[in-house]
Amino acid sequence: MQYDRLHTFVIHQLESGLPAYLTYHNTEHTISVIEATMHLAASENIGGEDLILLKTAALVHDTGYLKHHMEHEVLSCDFAKKWLPEYGYSSLQIEIVCRMIMATRLPHDPADHLAEILCDADLYYLGTEHYSFYSEKLYLEFRKFGLVKTKLEWNLMQVEFLSAHKFYIRTAIQEREAQKQKQLQQLKAKLDSSIAASKKIDPVDIVQDILLMLVGVVFAGYALKGFLVPNHFFDGGITGISLLVHELYHFNLAIVILLLNLPFIVVSYFSVGSRFAFRTFISVVLLGICLTLLPDVAITNDKLLISIFGGVFLGIGIGLIMRAGAALDGIEVLALYTLKRTSFTITEIILGINILIFSAAAFKFGIETALYSVLTYFSATRCIDYVVEGIQAYTGVTIISGKSELIKYQLVNDLRRGITVYKGERGFLPGKFEISADCDIIFTVITRLELRKLKNLVYNVDPNAFVFANTIKEASGGVIKRRHHH
User: Which of 208, 218, 226, 327 is the most buried (most CB within 10 A)?
Assistant: First the structure.
């Protein structure tokens, strides 16, 4: 094997044939990989024929870029098969060289010790203080090829790559792993900072949420003061408990509702999120003000109309407030909190709490009142479901976007949701049926309180993303029980 003659030939081919836009995969890179290969080979006591074959693989592993950047490993093997016989390499030796070259294809899958050395040498820069310098060169290449468009996408790609990458050789681990992890943490911090800076608060959304909260509070207050309170009817949840306390002890209803919801607002601050807790607190305070200002005037004395329309107006009010990213009743927060400590579902927990409320109402005010109150609760829950577009406790969301990498990162790291990714194709539009492209189809499961935030997150990344949701009656396992961030 005439390695020295081959080295002169290949370096000349690279210097004269590689395009100028290859800022990373150039002759300098090949020389640095050869140097790293020799350093790692020496630490592993590799010598003789194995060392020559290893240096040969390092020398020709990126010659495929002389033709094209796509499938360059295969093209590099073609280069080896064409030229190595002229420098004394046998068919078996060429096969070994090609096996090492193909091992550098991402994700790495080295079949032997020599391939492991070449894989580590090829990416030895990952664990150096010059990582940013080489990363910038590679970014320019990727942008030229159209693989990335922005620095944010590039940093995201680098975080995912460094998180999955591993060195194989003991020396590489000792010399490079610690610095690589440091680079990873710096990249994560930079990425989080970039994402935070890109998030803009839309004044229109804020005004819309405020209007939803105000209208929702008025509807709920009207239902209580115009239907339920004057006729001694009840509802489920914390509202039902408040009505029960008000009827038994004649305490001010506005104060009772506020006091009974406060503990759950505090719990929601830690288990759901500060924004959700703050908006819920404001909603409950506004409801208290509304109840204080509205007079006790019975709209009707018909018990059927009271139970149905009292529930309808209450459900509309609660639903509008939920669409604003808040809640008017702490029972769902209590259910989420209890869910983490029991084997019951949220539906079962809420049902159990309401059974106790209606049982107490039946014992004190009669079975007829309790049954009408159950009808009120049913009407309210149906209207809540209608207002929030049929969303139940859990909602399955499917997202199709050309910017799926960034969306995946934010779903996992910002929304703290688990995701499943399907490989698919997007396109096939009327008049352009022949145009399509591979894409990742993202599926995740969220609570109904999170749907608004998820949509905002997705559309901030890609306004043209296709998002659709479907009802999930019950869900368990995975990460759906983790802390919710609103």
Answer: 327
Give the distance between the most distant pair of CA atoms in the chain.
104
Note the pLDDT of residue 392: 46
DSSP structural state of residue 225: I
Taking the C-alpha atoms of residue 295 and residue 444, their distance in angstroms, rounded to an integer, is 46
Number of Cβ atoms within 10 Å of the Cβ of 153: 18
Amino acid at residue number 57: A
What token pair was written down for 248? 């038994």
Cα-Cα-Cα-Cα dihedral of 183, 184, 185, 191, to 10°?
110
Would 483 be classed as within a structural domain?
no
Number of domains in the chain: 3
**What is the pTM (predicted TM-score) of this model?**
0.50
Residues 286 and 421 in one domain: no
Q: CA-CA distance, 404 to 153, in Å (whole number)?
A: 10
- Looking at the structure, do residues 379 and 337 belong to the same domain, yes or no? yes
CA 70 – CA 136 distance, rounded (Å): 20
Q: How confident is the model at residue 391 (pLDDT cuts 50, 70, 90)?
A: very low
The burial class, CB within 10 Å (0-12 / 13-18 / 19+), for 245 is middle
Q: What is the mean pLDDT of residues 372-398?
A: 77
Query: At 422, which helix (H) or strand (E)?
Result: strand 419-429
Query: From CA 197, how far away is CA 200, in angstroms rounded?
Result: 8
CATH of the domain at 10: 1.10.3210.10
Residue 374 neighbours by CB under 8 Å, 6+ apart: 358
Q: What is the DSSP string of 439-485?
A: EEEEEEEEEGGGHHHHHHHHHHH-TT-EEEEEEES---STTTTSPP-
Residue 433 confidence (pLDDT): 66
CB 449 within 8 A of CB 277: no
pLDDT band at 483 (very low <50, low <70, confident <90, very high): very low
* Residue 484 placed within a domain: no
Task: Report yes or no on 482 lying in a domain.
Answer: no
- Distance between CA atoms of 460 and 473, rounded to whole angstroms? 29
Of 361, 387, 413, the residue that ends a domain is: 387
Pair 128, 211 in one domain: no
- Where is the domain boundary, 139, 170, 198? 198
User: Could you give the CA distance from residue 65 to residue 28 in angstroms, rounded to a whole number?
Assistant: 14
